[in-house]
């Protein structure tokens, strides 16, 4: 008896304790949970050889085993537990098959004080988007991990892994803080154990594991803690629409209805406008939403309640475990509307100040607005998604600063005209605004565009002073250029200086060219000025139709305001200030761009492509 007890204790210490010939458990998801969550239900997915015939029991007296769900595949069991009375503890889940039994220790942790009060990102923040594999290699020892399917690092191949990792980002937190960003958005860091193309992270093979070539779960949590210590938030990229074909949930499906089209590859049309199109056929909607991105990215069926709970729990697990401040949800309209709405609500019920931004890549503000929380266009349905991505404004900005502005079209008139339509949005301040990202051509599409200093400066001023939550793509501060026509891999080039032996180190002023330092300094000035600026974070927006090519708008909060004058022409312009008196409360103002005092008489002269950001 004593010997048996000792053996049982030893197996428990090893994580999974079982008798001879008992089932081998390959996955327990999630591997632990917390007491005191607002939603007391816990789903535990067990994966192991032929476990579905097991009788299941648990050792805890204050946890209720509500349901044991078998799947078509005998290698799975899904347990549902009620933790409403649970205290922090380690209990045993016992699977019994005749005389054989497997005992699985399971921990319910104590929540960190204040974890439910995590602050999300908002219009006072500026997000800096990083593709971890391409930013900096802080730990070369994890470049190749034995046993993973893509055992190759080749920086000369734009579609191969390059070796960037979490340690590289952690090493450069001071650089980001000095630049002035307040939040870091990371492209997916969860495991992508795929045979090829695994560098970008969008084919997840384990929803609860950081890719080992980027680091560990613990390293990610430490990165978040260090970022918080420097006053920066962290946003995590997630993908619920699809996973990677090497995910165990697809390779050995619990049941065919875990994936759309019963796990058979059927290509999406990408035409997600059909979701809100009142004229769309049922077929158009189904093929858009249920179709697969590619054969290597199976499309998850979020209408399956077990799939839905698995995905929802995985996101809450990462928030609770790491303290992240936000989630960017990839391909949001491609997933089931109702399930995604439930997910957004479940997250914000647990973390009221948390924020989620959905990738809503649609070609008009009307279509984008449908996906925002409280949209009248979606009523009576509600997405519960606070922030959507303003792709139509991105398209306008990529044209506006190259063109001549007239009183009726072109140039800055594009921006004015687009913003006059903000009434379609439930909350314009919760739009993510950006010049580019990892899926688009860079704002500096080529070297010629990078040399246009006025274009760059005007775009940054507008981006950082208009309504919404700005996002900057890594490398914009040093004029990194790329055209999507040349392939996605080139949009995601290595940041110069992120690898030992790089010819140039653009993390350091001495490693940048004169032009790059000018661009960096300009962005830094704007970002540091914007940080903590309540006029920009909370202020109303009032604007005037362009006149003589000059666009004027005001941001106002309380008795303080900022007024932007922007000349969208290649000629000096002198304008009459009479039409703008309602936003000019004083006879003088401070121009933050030049740190000078501007006298506001009858007229104001702006140089070609010139700007003023006046503070009152």
Number of helices: 16
For the record, the CATH class of the largest domain is: Alpha Beta
Overall structural class, as computed from helix and strand content, comes to alpha/beta
| Structural domain count | 3
Radius of gyration: 27 Å
Distance between the termini: 82 Å
Instruction: Give the second-level CATH assignment, the architecture of the largest domain.
Output: Alpha-Beta Barrel
CATH superfamily of the largest domain: Glycosidases
Shape: elongated
CATH topology tier name of the largest domain: TIM Barrel
Number of strands: 27
Mean pLDDT: 95
**Multimeric organization:** single chain
- Describe the strand arrangement of the main beta sheet, using strand numbers: 10-11-14-15-16-17-18-19
Report the β-strand fraction as a percent range.
Answer: 15-25%
Helical percent range? 10-25%
Ranges where pLDDT stays below 50 over 5 or more residues in a row are: 1-20
Major sheet details: 8 strands, parallel, barrel
Notable features of this structure?
616 residues, alpha/beta, Immunoglobulin-like, 8-stranded parallel barrel, elongated, disordered N terminus
What would you say about this model in short?
With 616 residues, the protein is an alpha/beta fold. Helices cover 24% and strands 23% of the residues.
Polypeptide structure, described:
This protein has 616 residues and is α/β, with parallel strands linked by helices. It has 3 domains: 2-111, Immunoglobulin-like (Sandwich), CATH 2.60.40.10; 116-535, TIM Barrel (Alpha-Beta Barrel), CATH 3.20.20; 537-615, Sandwich (Immunoglobulin-like), CATH 2.60.40.1180. The chain contains 16 helices and 27 strands. Strand 8 and strand 9 form a beta hairpin. The chain is elongated and about 95 Å long.
């Amino acid at each position: 008896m004593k010997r048996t007890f000792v053996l049982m204790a030893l197996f428990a210490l090893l994580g999974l304790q079982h008798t001879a010939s008992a089932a081998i458990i390959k996955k327990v998801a999630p591997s632990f949970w917390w007491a005191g969550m607002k939603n007391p239900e816990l789903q535990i997915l067990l994966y192991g050889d032929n476990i579905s015939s097991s009788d299941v029991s648990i050792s805890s007296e204050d946890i209720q085993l509500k349901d044991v769900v078998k799947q078509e595949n005998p290698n799975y069991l899904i347990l549902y537990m009620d933790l409403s009375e649970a205290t922090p503890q380690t209990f045993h889940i016992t699977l019994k098959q005749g005389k054989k039994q497997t005992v699985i220790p399971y921990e319910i942790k104590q929540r960190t004080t204040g974890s439910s009060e995590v602050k999300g990102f908002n219009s006072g923040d500026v997000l800096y988007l990083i593709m971890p594999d391409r930013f900096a290699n802080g730990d070369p020892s994890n470049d190749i991990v034995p046993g993973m399917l893509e055992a190759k690092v080749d920086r000369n191949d734009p579609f191969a892994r390059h070796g960037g990792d979490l340690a590289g980002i952690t090493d450069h937190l001071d650089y980001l803080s000095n630049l002035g960003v307040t939040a870091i958005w990371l492209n997916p860091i969860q495991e992508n154990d795929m045979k090829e193309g695994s560098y970008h992270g969008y084919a997840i093979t384990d929803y609860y594991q950081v890719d080992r070539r980027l680091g560990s779960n613990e390293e990610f949590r430490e990165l978040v803690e260090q970022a918080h210590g420097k006053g920066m938030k962290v946003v995590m990229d997630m993908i619920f629409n699809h996973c990677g074909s090497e995910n165990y949930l697809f390779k050995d499906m619990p049941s065919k209805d875990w994936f759309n089209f019963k796990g058979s590859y059927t290509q999406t049309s990408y035409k997600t406008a059909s979701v809100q199109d009142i004229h769309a056929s049922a077929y158009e909607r189904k093929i858009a939403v249920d179709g697969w991105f590619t054969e290597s990215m199976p499309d998850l069926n979020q209408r399956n309640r077990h799939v839905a709970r698995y995905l929802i729990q995985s996101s809450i697990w990462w928030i609770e475990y790491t303290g992240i401040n936000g989630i960017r949800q990839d391909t949001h309209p491609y997933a089931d509307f109702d399930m995604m709405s439930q997910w957004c609500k479940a997250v914000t019920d647990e973390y009221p100040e948390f924020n989620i931004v959905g990738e809503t890549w649609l070609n008009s503000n009307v279509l984008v607005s449908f996906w925002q929380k409280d949209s009248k266009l979606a009523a009576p349905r509600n997405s519960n998604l606070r922030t959507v991505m303003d792709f139509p404004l991105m398209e306008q900005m990529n044209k506006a600063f190259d063109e001549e502005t007239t009183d009726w079209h072109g140039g800055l008139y594009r921006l004015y005209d687009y913003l006059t339509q903000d009434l379609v949005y439930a909350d314009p301040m919760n739009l993510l605004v950006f010049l580019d990202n990892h899926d688009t051509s860079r704002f500096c599409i080529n070297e010629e565009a990078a040399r246009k200093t006025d274009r760059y400066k005007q775009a940054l001023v507008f981006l950082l002073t208009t309504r919404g939550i700005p996002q900057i793509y890594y490398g914009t501060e040093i004029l990194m250029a790329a055209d999507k026509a040349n392939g996605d891999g080139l949009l995601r080039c290595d940041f110069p200086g992120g690898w030992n032996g790089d010819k140039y180190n653009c993390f350091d002023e001495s490693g940048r060219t004169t032009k790059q330092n000018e661009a960096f300094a300009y962005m830094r000035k704007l970002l540091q000025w914007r940080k903590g600026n309540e006029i920009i974070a909370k202020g109303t927006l009032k604007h005037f139709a362009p006149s003589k090519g000059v666009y004027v708008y005001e941001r106002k909060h309380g008795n303080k305001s900022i007024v932007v004058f922007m000349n969208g022409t290649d000629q000096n312009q002198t304008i009459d200030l009479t039409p703008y008196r309602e936003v000019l409360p004083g006879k003088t103002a401070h121009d933050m761009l030049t740190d000078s005092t501007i006298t506001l008489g009858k007229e104001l002269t702006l140089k070609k492509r010139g700007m003023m950001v006046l503070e009152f």
